[in-house]
Design a protein that fits this description.
Layout (H helix, E strand, L loop, with lengths): L17 E5 L3 H12 L3 E6 L23 H6 L4 E4 L5 H12 L3 E4 L13 H7 L4 E6 L14 H8 L21 H22 L5 E6 H8 L4 H8 L14 E3 L4 E4 L4 H10 L19 H9 L3 H10 L4 E3 L10 H6 L2 E3 L6 E3 L4 E3 L16 H5 L26 E5 L4 H11 L3 E6 L27 H7 L2 E5 L5 H11 L4 E4 L3 H7 L3 H7 L4 E4 L16 H8 L19 H23 L3 E4 L2 H8 L1 H10 L16 E5 L12 E5 L3 H10 L14 H6 L1 H12 L4 H11 L3 E3 L10 H5 L3 E6 L3 E6 L3 E3 L18 H7 L4 H9 L10
Parallel strand pairs: 1-2, 1-4, 2-3, 4-5, 5-6, 13-14, 13-16, 14-15, 16-17, 17-18
Antiparallel strand pairs: 6-24, 7-8, 8-9, 10-11, 12-18, 19-20, 20-21, 22-23
Length: 812
């Protein structure tokens, strides 16, 4: 760690905060890793047989009984390990004593210890009212589906994430996102929820239950506000599956990802690939799949480096398609030191998903061996939980970020999601746009609305879903007059969040040093695609190129085809990580009074979600490949077509089935009527089922195609087999657990009327019961109000409007 400037070594933001890790699997482990990186003391409690994660290897590597898998070693860095035998009263009393002395518990079921009746979340809250208890489960603790079996794969189906934004070809099954991203998403939401609850505790509030639903986390991050879009546009965002064009292509010497996210980028791409005639057909910006073969031909004549160099010159989003073998040796990641060495076993692993300046996050320490610190904690006196003075941002019990003023200089998805979460938690958010360049998502509905629609820029469900609880300020920052007005506003703010490419703020004279000169204790969150340094620093970054570069794309798709960008993950993943980094920055400011720069590069967050690829290759020399809808931890696992018709009358409805345990296999074959093919004794072994997957798929496909999805779900769930309907995303609000938990709130918009809006995938037992207080703002709706409060006179406001630097309609 670096010096804070006063001669003393700085404290990590969460130093003095003690957390008991009662979780198993990736989600809880990633949650507590983030908190340990922030300086928390994390004590991992395990039964004598250990967390199953210790023996997990997606490549099938054999983990010795006295060793741990690479993924565990990565996720358990900086934690302490204690073994508890739950069947021994003295051990159980020891666990209770440790928990009583802690500040928080992170819990997920799946071990004998976590599932003990005295250690479930509600029991802990009753016995230890001071605790924050963060629970991470498939459907949420308070859910009518809380006792139903599920896996990452079946939750992707229920969430709408398998259909997503139309991923995959229409003549094949839809395609799930590879690499189990839902586990990681639930983990980062768990860390966020724990820190929010800590703010309340710091303000004197008692503990609470923080109830994280993995289904809701995936609905939030693997789809693009489909319910709100449907309600406001009266039709789905997309009804057909497709693969991005351009997208992933085969160059002479490897795979390269190139994409377009704006109209100008499409025109530039046409020029780059020597097809200027495509510019003359405006319809190609919406539908261009038939151009794929021409694009493939152009790409195939060039090397990856040649394509990347050209794309950089034309300012078209681009990246090599990375995997576990190539990512550690990519020049940008090498120069930024995006990967570090595991302190115990020496393999490569991603560095922290965000960086704080000053560098106050804890550097990783070796993961604990099973029970390594048991005796150390047995000999400790009971610790009294930390009681902190009230913080300046804790606010009321209902709104933990009440009183925090945030200048939101973001657009598209990742940045607005970060500030949207802050708004849901009570912060005042001032969203900066300009009439010449409104937030791009304001026009996301234009392609489906009638040509004579008025105020098109106010009718986007995507913009509305990302910007409720915000104020809209229009201000053209290209003009000196606009920049001066913004600087006056900056002096009233606690936080600035921006997600431009780094060169933009540099050119405007609004980098961190300039902002800190205006507001000395500012916390500034910068969300560049590839970071504030390195050779890719100024590259345009959309979700698909971040997914390409980090390895998320590599794991998604069928093995006999090129990989497919998930196109749904990198943006929201970056946004949630940025919020968590910001909360740590706020805690550092509370302790020291110092300003903080939070560098939340999109690609760093994505590398962490793709970490399993990197650590598996570095440890075992195996490149994890894409496997369609199959997976390394279940057999059978796949999508199967049902007898239903979709909303367009097509026979394109599917169910997801995943068998994880031998008992689930026995249950499945019982539901099937114990046919001869399923009764082969060798299939009681998971590895044999994996070897026979093709045959099993054929029989399951035949069984499913003559039944409705509802009937299949009813039969398999009642038998204890994980199953899910592959949901069209705009039907998320029909799901019983989301309705029961109030995940969607109905909001009245002044132009489009009532629409359902997604909230946080977290329920806080101390509230708020309702998270959305106001609809997304009209363009420039609060300009005069906000600038007047910052000290601008009526004459100055009139001058800005007369110069066209503010306004309430997009410039013509």
């Amino acid at each position: 760690m670096t010096s804070s400037g006063n001669g003393d070594e700085p404290h990590a933001p969460l130093e003095g905060y003690q957390i008991i890790d009662l979780s198993s699997g990736v989600a809880g482990a990633y949650c507590t890793k983030i908190l340990a990186d922030g300086g928390a003391e994390v004590i991992k409690l395990e039964p004598p047989e250990g967390d199953p994660l210790r023996s997990r290897s997606a490549s099938g590597a054999v983990i010795a009984p006295d060793d741990d898998g690479a993924l565990f070693d990565f996720l358990a860095c900086s934690k302490h390990g204690v073994v508890i035998e739950p069947d021994r009263p003295d051990d159980l009393e020891f666990a209770v004593r440790l928990i009583a002395g802690a500040d928080a518990v992170v819990w997920s079921g799946g071990t004998r210890l976590a599932d003990h009746r005295a250690l479930n979340p509600r029991a802990l809250r009753r016995s230890q009212p001071h605790l924050t208890v963060t629970s991470i489960t498939a459907f949420g603790l308070d859910s009518p589906w809380s006792d139903r079996p599920a896996t990452e794969f079946t939750l992707q189906a229920w969430s709408g994430g398998i259909i997503g934004l139309g991923r995959g070809w229409a003549d094949r099954a839809p395609i799930s996102v590879g690499g189990q991203p839902g586990e990681w998403l639930a983990g980062i939401y768990g860390a966020l929820g724990t820190m929010v609850s800590r703010l309340r505790a710091g303000g004197g509030a008692p503990g609470e239950l923080v109830d994280v639903s993995m289904l809701e986390a995936m609905a939030s991050c693997m789809t693009y506000h489909p319910v709100t879009f449907f309600d406001m546009a009266a039709q789905p965002f997309r009804t057909e599956r497709a693969v991005l064009t351009p997208g992933v292509h085969a160059a002479k010497d490897g795979l390269v990802g190139v994409g377009v996210g704006t109209g100008q980028q499409w025109l530039d791409f046409c020029a780059m690939v020597d097809h200027p005639e495509w510019m003359d057909d405006p319809s190609l910006f919406v539908e261009r799949r038939h151009l794929a073969s021409d694009i493939d031909e152009w790409m195939g004549q060039r090397t990856v480096d040649e394509i990347l160099e050209l794309a950089s010159l034309f300012r078209i989003p681009h990246a090599p398609v990375g995997n576990g073998a190539s990512v550690p040796h990519t020049s940008h990641f090498e120069q930024r030191r995006s990967l570090v060495t595991n302190p115990r076993d020496g393999f490569a692993q991603p560095d922290q998903p965000f960086r704080l300046h000053p560098a106050v996050l804890r550097q990783p320490q070796a993961a604990p061996r099973l029970g390594e610190h048991t005796e150390r904690y047995r000999g400790c006196h009971r610790r009294q939980p930390e009681r902190r003075e009230p913080t300046t941002v804790a606010g009321s019990v209902q709104l933990p970020l009440s009183g925090l003023r945030v200048l939101d200089m973001t657009a598209f998805w990742a940045g607005p999601l970060c500030t949207h979460v802050l708004g849901l938690l009570g912060a005042e958010i001032i969203h900066v746009e300009s009439v010449s360049r409104p937030d791009h998502t304001r026009l996301a509905a234009a392609r489906v609305l009638p040509d004579n629609t008025t105020q098109v820029w106010e009718r986007s469900g995507i913009f509305s879903g990302l910007n409720s609880n915000k104020k809209s300020l229009t201000l053209d920052l290209r003009a000196e007059q606009g920049r001066e007005a913004l600087k006056r506003l900056l002096s009233t703010c606690d936080v600035v969040v921006e997600n431009y490419t780094p060169r933009v703020l540099d050119q405007l004279g609004l980098d961190y040093d300039a902002v800190r000169a205006i507001q000395p204790d500012i916390v500034m969150v910068r969300m560049p695609g590839f970071g504030l340094d390195g050779p890719w620093r100024d590259n345009a970054a959309f979700a698909f190129v971040i997914e390409d570069a980090s390895g998320l794309t590599w794991r998604t798709g069928f093995p006999d085809e090129k990989p497919i960008s998930p196109y749904c993950l990198a943006d929201p993943n970056a946004g949630i990580h940025a919020v968590t980094g910001l909360l740590m920055g706020l805690e550092h400011r509370r302790r020291t009074g110092e300003s903080v720069l939070v560098e939340a590069a999109m690609v760093d967050a994505a590398l962490n979600v793709a970490a399993e690829q990197i650590v598996e290759y570095s440890s075992y020399g195996v490149v994890l490949e894409r496997s369609g809808n199959r997976g390394p931890f279940a057999a059978p696992q796949n999508l199967y077509r049902t007898d239903d018709l979709d909303e367009q009358g097509r026979r394109d409805c599917w169910v997801a089935i995943a068998v994880v345990t031998d008992d689930q296999w026995i249950a499945l074959r019982t539901v099937l009527g114990e046919p001869d093919w399923a009764m082969d004794a060798t299939l009681l072994d998971a590895s044999e089922r994996c070897a026979a997957h093709d045959t099993i798929d054929e029989h399951l496909a035949e069984w499913c195609r003559n039944q409705s999805a509802d009937r299949i779900v009813e039969r398999l769930w009642s038998a204890g087999v994980p199953v899910g309907k592959v949901l069209q995303p705009h039907h998320q609000a029909d799901l019983a657990p989301l309705q029961h938990r109030g995940f969607f709130e109905t909001v009245e918009h002044p132009v489009t009327g009532w629409a359902r809006h997604a909230t946080l995938p977290i329920r806080f037992s101390r509230g708020p019961r309702r998270q959305i207080r106001s609809p997304a703002p009209l363009l420039g709706e609060h300009t005069r109000e906000v600038l007047a409060a910052a000290g601008l006179s009526e004459q100055e406001l009139d001058d800005l409007a007369a110069a066209g630097l503010t306004g309430t309609e997009p410039a013509r």
